[in-house]
Amino acid sequence: MARAAPCFESGNVVYIITMPSELAHRPDQVVIDVQPIVSILYPAYESAVMAARQFFENLREPVEPFEYSSQVRYFAKQYIRRHHGGAISAIQSVANNGLKFEQGRYSIRARKIDRRIHGGVEVLAPSPGISEPMQLFYRQRIAPLAPLFNRPELNLMFLWDNSRGFVELFLSCPAGGTTRRSVVEYWWRRLNHPADSLFAPPAPPSDDNSDLGYQRRFDDDAESDTGTENG
Amino acid sequence: MVNGERIKQIRELLGWTQKELGERIGAEQPVVAMMEGGRRQPTPEMIAALVEQTKFPLSHFTQSDPCDFPLGSLLFRGPKTVTAKQQAIAHRFAQFTFDTIAPLRAKLTTIPLRIPRLESETPASAARLTRSFLGLSPDGPVDNLTSVLERSGVIVIAIPTEVEGRDAFSGWALDASVPVIALSAGRPTDRIRFSLAHELGHLVMHQSVRGHIAEVERAANEFAAEFLTPADAIRPQLDPPLTLTTLAQLKLRWKVAIQSLIRRAKELGTISQNQYEYLFKQISLRGWRTREPANLDPPPEVPRSLPEIIRAAHGAQANLETIAASGRVGVEFLRDVLEAHSAQSFLARGDAAGRKRRFAVVPGRKRADA
To answer: Is residue A1 predicted with pLDDT exceeding 80?
Structure first.
C-alpha cells in the first residue's frame, strides 16, 4: 500500500510526496494480478501487428518503422475497443494513440519496448520524453491516499516487442528518469503468451472409456486358448 | 516345414537385408533368397539360429502364409519421403500385429462396420457423409476420434516404429472386409487425430486408387480437414483478426493443431496469403512448428482394439508368454506391441528423444545396437 505524506505548500505550488507502493517490490504478485489484462493485450498486439503489416502490403511499400509503430498502437486500441470494451473500461485519450487505462490497483500504459543496457543493467522502458505527465508516471506519482479511495497505487507499463518476428509483451515498473539514459525501473518481467497458460481439459468421463464391446461368441469353441478363460 | 514367406516377413520386420540375415544364421545371401522363395529349406542349424536371432518361436516359421494385409496407404507416399526399408518395417509390424489378433477376433462378436465407401464423392462431401454414418453431429468437434473409429468397426493398432513423414497408414484387410489403421505411438494427440482422419479418408474414398498419388494425398487431407473442422462450423471462428492467442483457444475446442487451423483458414479464404505466411512465421519463431505447446495437447487417445481383443479372447489373467505362444510370436515383439498400446506411449507427447528411448526395444534396433 502506498504511504502518502502530508501535502505542503510553497508559494502557489502544492507538492505531494509519495512513497512507492509496496507492490513495486512484489513483481510476482503484480504479474499475477495483471494476467486478465495480458490475455487481452497479447491478441490485441498480435492482431495489430498483422494489421500494420497488411497496411504496408496494401500500399506495396516497405515497412516504415515509425509509421509501423504508430499503426500498431492504433490497431491495438481498436482491437481492444471492439473486442474487450467491457473488460478494459475507460481507455483514456493520450497523445500518439498511446494506450492508458486503470485496472484495479494499477495505472497502466502500453508502449513500445526500447531495450538497452545502462550501467550493466538491462532497461526496457523507453524514454518518457518531454511529456510532464509521462515523467510523473515514471516517477510513480500517484494520488494521495490512493488505496483508501480505491485509486491506482502503482504505475505499470506493458511493453510490446516485435523485433523477433513475433509479439512479446513485457511488464515494467518504472522508477523514474527523464531521458533515455536516465530511465530506471524497479523491475521488469517477460510475460508468458496466453497459449502457455491454457490447458486442455481432461477427457470427459463418458462411454469412450468403456469397453469396445468385444465378447466371446457363444457358438465358439468353449475351450480357452490359455486355460484361464472362464468361458 | 519352414515357410519361406515367414522368414521374409520377420527379416523385413527386423529391418535386415538378406545378407545380414545370412550372416546371423550362417548362410550365404543366395541361400537366404532361395529359402524365402520356398526353393530351399534351412538346415536344422539355420533354424536354430533363426529362432535364436529373431527371438520368435519355431512355430512361427512353420505357419502358413501371413494374413492378407495390404500396404494400403503406405503406397501413397513418394520414395523420397519413405524408404523401402522403413515402409517394409512399418508394414510388417502392422501385419504381425494384425496377424496376432485376427484369429482371436474371429472368436469374438464383431463390431458392426459403419465405415462407408464413397469413391465418387468429393472429399468434403465424403467427410460430411462419413460424419453422418458415424453418428457425429455435423458441426461439432470430434471428442475421441480413436474411440469413434474403433466403435465403428475400424481396427486401430499402434506400432512401435516410425515411418519418416508418415504417422499412420491404413488399408482394408482380409479380402477388403476389415478396415485397419496402423499408427505410430508417441506423437502429439493433435497429429494423431489428423493422421487418423486422413487415413479414414483413404479408407472411405480410395479403396481403388485412381489418379496421381499427390492428388490422392491431397484428397485425404481435404477429407481430414472437413471431417475434423466442418467448414460451416469453423469458418466464423476463423474470421480475422486471427492471432496465436485465438488459435490456441480454438485448438482446445477443436482438438486440432494450430497449424491445421491456419491452413484451414487459408483454404476457407478467411485470411490472405500474407497473413497465412506471417502466422506460420510466428509459429516457426516460437518453435511451435515442430512441437506446439504441450499444455494445449488434447487428451491422449489410446487405441484399445488389440488389448481388448486379447483380453476378450484369452481372459484378463493370461500372461505374456501364453499369449505370445498362442499367437506364435516372440515375447519381446508382443511386449513392444502391447507397450505401444499403453497410455504411457500416448503420453509421450511427441518428445523425439523419449520416443527413441522407449522404442529402442524394437527388435531390429536392439540387436543392431548390441
So the answer is: no
Which residue type, as a one-letter code, is found at position A198? L
Residue B124 CB contacts under 8 Å (≥ 6 apart), including other chains? B222, B223, B226, B231
Burial B111-124 (b: 16+ CB within 10 A, else e): beeebbbbeebebb
- Asked if A196 is an interface residue toward chain B (Cβ–Cβ < 8 A), one would say yes
- Chain B (257-276) residues lying within 8 Å, Cβ to Cβ, of chain A: 272, 274-275
Helix runs in A60-170, H state only: 65-83, 132-138
- For the stretch B254-285, pLDDT in tens is 999 999 999 999 999 999 898 899 999 999 99
Q: Which long-range contacts (CB under 8 A, 24 or more apart) does B31-40 make?
A: B32/B7, B35/B2, B35/B4, B35/B7, B36/B4, B36/B5, B36/B7, B36/B8, B36/B11, B37/B4, B38/B3, B38/B4, B38/B5, B39/B4
Q: Specify whether the CB–CB gap between A225 and B313 falls below 8 A.
A: yes
pLDDT value at residue A122: 95
Interface of B with A in 128-157 (CB under 8 A): 143-144, 147, 150-151
Note the pLDDT tens digit of each residue in A74-89. Answer: 999 889 888 876 666 6
Peptide bond into A27 cis (omega under 30): no
Per 3-state DSSP, chain A is made up of helix, strand and coil in percentages (nearest 5) of 35, 25, 45
**Residue B96 pLDDT > 50, yes or no?**
yes
Which secondary-structure segment (H or E) carries A161? Answer: strand A154-161
- Per DSSP bridges, beta strands A168-176 and B168-172 are unpaired
> What single-letter amino acid sits at B18?
Q
Q: Is A66 on the interface with B (CB under 8 A)?
A: no
What is the model's pLDDT at position A219? 62
Please give the C-alpha separations between residue B322 and each of B302, B310, B352, in angstroms, as whole numbers: 24, 11, 33
Cβ atoms B186, B345 nearer than 8 A = yes
Distance CA B323, CA B307 (A): 11
- What pTM value is reported for the model? 0.83
Selecting from A196, A201, A212 the residue whose C-beta is nearest the C-beta of B305 gives A212
Distance CA A115, CA A172 (A): 12
Q: Is A130 on the interface with B (CB under 8 A)?
A: no
Long-range contacts of A29-32 (CB under 8 A, 24+ apart): A30/A106, A30/A154, A30/A156, A30/A171, A30/A173, A31/A171, A31/A189, A31/A191
Q: Does B285 touch chain A (CB under 8 A)?
A: yes
Which residue is it, cell 545396437? B369
Q: How far is it, in rounded angstroms, from Cα A170 to Cα A175?
A: 16
Return the amino acid letter for B187.
R
Q: Tell me, what's the pLDDT at B77?
A: 58
Strand partners, A168: A161
Whether B171 contacts B181, CB under 8 Å: no
Find all residues with CB under 8 Å of B84, minimum gap 6, and list them: none
**Cα separation, A184 vs B154, whole angstroms:** 64
Number of Cβ atoms within 10 Å of the Cβ of B307: 16
Q: What is the pLDDT of residues B194-232, one digit of tens each?
A: 999 999 999 999 876 666 778 888 999 999 999 999 999
| Closest C-alpha to B92, from B22, B168, B186, B159 | B159
Contact (CB, 8 A) for B308 and A214: yes
